[in-house]
TrEMBL record, chain A:
GO terms for biological process: transmembrane transport. This is Carbohydrate ABC transporter permease. It is a multi-pass membrane protein. Belongs to the binding-protein-dependent transport system permease family. Keywords: Cell membrane, Membrane, Transmembrane, Transmembrane helix, Transport. GO terms for cellular component: plasma membrane. It is found in: Cell membrane. Signal peptide: none annotated. It comes from Cohnella thailandensis. The chain crosses the membrane at residues 12-34, 81-103, 115-134, 146-164, 185-207, 266-285. Residues 77-285 form the ABC transmembrane type-1 domain. InterPro entries: MetI-like, MetI-like_sf.
């Protein structure tokens, strides 16, 4: 329809203003990331003078060298990476399998099963009771605490189920006639056909895993289990809590082999390291999640 | 005592049963067992002697927080931040979707869309870092820009102003989520019948007129559904992360919400029973909101029949 509309002067003014406003939206959204990126590549002492906006004034890799030398950051990166890979594969596999069972209207306990999970969207035991359950299971200070409690989320189950509901029933029926059991039907037919929604959910759970910090914060005390986001929280609260801490850390940081940095610049560098994987991956999966999001909104 | 037919069905569906049983166990352990922990709120729970041996206290902890003036501050913050988030989040998302819908250049449209979803995928930890950086008093972009334009005479320490916290957290929520929420509204707009626009053209509607009389009414059902869902979720809308991460010692009076308060009682002060009581309070308010929202949606659906 759009091409057939005559474009008069008023139209062009409207389009111009609209495009300008959207451009501002784009800049306001992107610029803060760019600002952090520029600061992370700028000499830390120079940054303190202020006024670094569009391009590093005094380019350096020191901030990144510094964070890669901090031993807990290598551990943190490793843990974040591992929990994202293992956790999201486990979650997406479990979500798909359970969603398939829930999508089978003929299953004897289908209603009960669905209710069991939907209720958990609205009622929660709360922070402390959950903490004691995790503690009772021996999951404190255990890597499994990153994988098991986050295994399933009802919202993802529901969007997977509604996608599977839309698949043609005839495929399943013919497989049943051929004597395939329900697990084979799921693994060989439903799972491959559900790839678009599985990719969407994989992205969602991977992002959830990569961004999680609260579980590290409350369930682990062992430094070997730290995660990137949690290290970032620690350094953020250090630099907001008191300026004295800043000075302490600055003295410590100034010590190492001619490499200069400040807590502020370290913060920028870690922020970049924690953001890059998301920025790199997500444009490629965009077409999937837009679909998944609209599907979830309609049926969820 | 199962009827033979059901028994046969059960045997036939043994694979389905086996496929869901591990997850049933999981949900019982991680979502339903904690509900028994609610008992804690009615007892003076001491971990050393266990939940069963701890002394019954009835509603003591509920009474205790209900007379605490700080508690009302917390409830106020939770509601105000939730409402601001829902109202501005929805309005900005609709506005963004409307603007995108008017763009004719596909490349430009796609680029802005891609950019606008990005903040949704980064954590609040990163968003807070970004906010602390761009709002900083020494060389932060926002202060320097305002100084340059001449709106302020000296840098403002934005993050230390309790009264500004609600504004900052709402801007944060909108910045992070508006693009993402706009996806739904945009999808609703693309499914509006194209012939309506042609008819509108014939009737002499301009661009604004078409937005007002065709696009907006066209997405009304979507707005209604999402608003109902948002009302049901109002009390959780402010969330733990924004309040905890953007807040600091200077803003506690305005930044602490119920989620943060529950955490402070429970894990910082180890007052487990008190924290559990607050958890129950939270769940009860959420359920009330949810049921009211459901009632409301019933009305909406009847209204839609016109």
């Amino acid at each position: 329809m759009i091409n057939r509309i005559r474009r008069n002067k008023g139209d062009r003014v409207f389009d111009g203003i609209n495009a300008l406003l959207l451009l501002i939206v784009g800049v306001v959204t992107l610029y803060p990331f760019w600002n952090i990126l520029v600061l992370s590549f700028n000499n830390a002492l120079d940054t303190l003078r202020g006024g670094v906006y569009l391009w590093p004034r005094s380019f350096t890799l020191d901030n990144f060298k510094m964070i890669f030398d901090l031993p807990q950051l290598a551990t943190a990166f490793g843990n974040s990476f591992l929990r994202t890979i293992i956790g999201s594969l486990l979650s997406v596999g479990s979500t798909a399998m359970l969603a398939y069972v829930i999508s089978r209207r003929d299953f004897l306990f289908q209603k009960l099963l669905q209710r069991l999970f939907v209720i958990t969207m609205y009622v929660s035991g709360g922070l402390i009771p959950i903490y004691f359950v995790i503690k009772g299971l021996g999951l404190l200070d255990n890597f499994l605490v990153y994988l098991i409690p986050m295994l399933l989320q009802p919202f993802y189950l529901l969007i997977a189920r509604s996608y599977m509901d839309g698949l043609p029933a005839s495929l399943q029926e013919s497989a049943q006639i051929d004597g395939a059991n329900d697990f084979i039907i799921f693994a060989k037919i439903i799972f491959p056909l559900s790839m678009p929604i599985i990719a969407t959910i994989l992205l969602f759970v991977a992002v959830d895993q990569w961004n999680a910090w609260f579980d590290t914060f409350i369930y682990t005390a062992n430094e070997k289990l730290t995660t990137l986001q949690y290290e970032l929280v620690k350094i953020l609260s250090q630099s907001t809590a008191s300026v004295k801490n800043d000075a302490d850390l600055r003295n410590k940081l100034a010590g190492g082999a001619g490499v200069v940095s400040t807590p502020q610049s370290i913060r920028m560098a870690i922020t970049i390291v924690a953001t890059i994987p998301i920025v790199v991956v997500y444009p490629f999966v965009q077409k999937y999640f837009v679909h998944g999001m609209t599907l979830g909104a309609v049926k969820g | 005592m199962l009827k033979p037919g059901i028994y046969r069905k059960l045997v036939r569906q043994r694979y389905l049963l086996a496929m869901c049983l591990p997850f049933v166990a999981w949900v019982l352990i991680f979502s339903y067992t904690p509900l028994f922990g609610w008992i804690m709120a009615f007892k003076d729970y001491k971990p050393a002697i266990g939940i069963l041996q701890s002394e019954w206290t009835g509603f003591r902890f509920f009474k205790e927080f209900l007379v605490d003036p700080r508690f009302y501050e917390i409830v106020r913050n939770t509601f105000v931040m939730g409402i601001l988030n829902v109202v501005f989040g929805t309005a900005c998302a609709i506005l963004l979707a409307l603007m995108l819908n008017e763009v004719r250049n596909k490349f430009f449209k796609r680029s802005i869309q891609t950019i606008s979803y990005l903040p949704h995928f980064v954590s609040w930890v990163i968003v807070s870092n970004i906010f602390y950086t761009v709002l900083s008093t020494d060389g932060g972009v926002v202060n320097n820009l305002l100084l340059w334009v001449g709106l302020i005479d000296e840098p403002i320490n934005w993050m230390a102003q309790g009264k500004l916290f609600w504004v900052i957290v709402t801007v944060g929520q909108v910045w992070k989520e508006a693009g993402w929420t706009a996806i739904i509204y945009f999808a609703a707009m693309t499914s509006i019948d194209k012939t309506l626009y042609e008819a509108g053209e014939v009737d002499g509607l301009g661009r604004i007129g078409k937005i007002r009389y065709i696009t907006l009414p066209g997405i009304m059902p979507t707005i209604a559904i999402l608003t109902v869902l948002n009302i049901g979720n109002l009390f959780n809308a402010s969330g733990f992360d924004p309040s905890y991460l953007l807040g600091n010692n200077m803003t506690l009076t305005y930044s602490d919400n119920l989620a943060v308060y529950t955490y402070r009682y429970g894990l910082q002060m180890s007052r487990f029973s008190m924290s559990a009581a607050l958890g129950i309070f939270n769940s009860v308010i959420c359920l009330i909101l949810l049921f009211s929202a459901n009632k409301l949606s019933g009305k909406f659906i009847e209204g839609k029949a016109i």
